[in-house]
Design goal:
By secondary structure, the protein is an alpha/beta fold. Helices cover 47% and strands 14% of the residues.
Length: 306
């Protein structure tokens, strides 16, 4: 574990890392910006329990009072859930200023990867990653998640890139950065709310043991890039592609009309899609996070056995 005066590792997490036990990182933006209180807190605690049930220690990651926290207490999760969107959504560019000022920050995929790597946590479960936004050829709106995957050796288990994005360009960008895109039990890139996207993945892997072996091989070679594992939402919770595509198209049109851009784009689009689908997309979002937590925990267990 890297000694860093800004890093605060929860004692249970630190003990697990030191003993070579499986640990899974979790982001905190899903708590502060992903859903309303108290559903956000209930979901965060449920995800942590799923990780425990599958043999690993959960480490929800956040910035609290200028400290990079690897592993939150139930009280800290409650604090985050109540404060909600008043908490700064923190990407790589925000870390230094937030820590210097002693402020709070909700970690995105990018910052969760950074802090997990500092703490010695190798596997991270989330909902979906950011990517290349539609129209990025003129706006240059590309998520920092893709850059981080190219330079930080953490495995990210997700349900694919969010379907509000340009999935084809997102895959091209990941290829340029040398990031392997793995389909867990599938040869097609899942698209967050749906299991199909029309795009293929680099490799299909069917077991946590094989995921762990592939990631360990890259780690032992000294490869600096991460690994992206795309795990399809369970069939019973998936949304019809036509329904979600129509809602996304409408939300993007409204986003453009309102002139929303940058880091405000994704929260607006996800919230609007949830409204347009009568809350169905939020229910699907929760279920896919549960599914990713399970796969990540099983992979972390397999990694520690190898």
């Amino acid at each position: 574990m890297l000694m860093n005066k800004y890093l605060d590792v929860n004692p249970e997490v630190a003990e697990a890392i030191a003993a070579g036990k499986p640990v899974v990182a979790l982001e905190s933006t899903i708590i502060s910006h992903g859903m309303p209180y108290p559903q956000n807190v209930e979901t965060a605690l449920a995800v942590e329990q799923i990780i425990r049930d599958n043999g690993a220690v959960p480490a929800t990651i956040a910035i609290i009072g200028g400290k990079l926290k690897a592993g939150l207490t139930a009280e800290e999760i409650e604090y985050f859930g109540k404060k909600g969107q008043a908490i700064h959504k923190a990407s790589r560019r925000d870390l230094a200023v937030l820590c210097a000022r002693g402020e709070d920050g909700a970690t995105t995929v990018t910052t969760t990867m950074i802090i997990a790597h500092m703490a010695g946590i190798k596997i991270f479960a989330t909902g979906g990653i950011g990517g290349v936004h539609r129209g990025a050829e003129t706006t240059m709106d590309i998520s920092a998640d893709l850059e981080e995957l190219g330079q930080t050796p953490v495995m990210v288990v997700c349900a694919g890139a969010k379907s509000i994005l340009d999935l084809g360009l997102t895959l091209e960008y990941l290829e340029t950065k040398g990031v392997p895109v793995i389909g867990y039990g599938t040869e097609e890139l899942p698209a967050f709310y749906t299991r199909q996207s029309g795009f293929g993945v680099d490799y299909r892997i069917d077991t946590p043991e094989e995921l762990a072996a592939a990631f360990k091989a890259g780690h032992e070679m000294g490869l600096k890039s991460g690994m992206l594992v795309t795990n399809p939402i369970p069939e019973e919770f998936a949304m019809p592609k036509a329904v979600i595509d129509a809602a996304i198209d409408q939300a993007i049109a409204e986003c453009n009309e309102k002139g929303i851009h940058g880091k405000e784009t994704t929260p607006f689009l996800l919230a609007r899609v949830a409204e347009l689908t009568g809350g169905d997309s939020l229910a699907s979002n929760i279920r896919l996070v549960f599914n990713n937590a399970k796969v990540a925990a099983q992979t972390a267990v397999a990694y520690c056995k190898n």
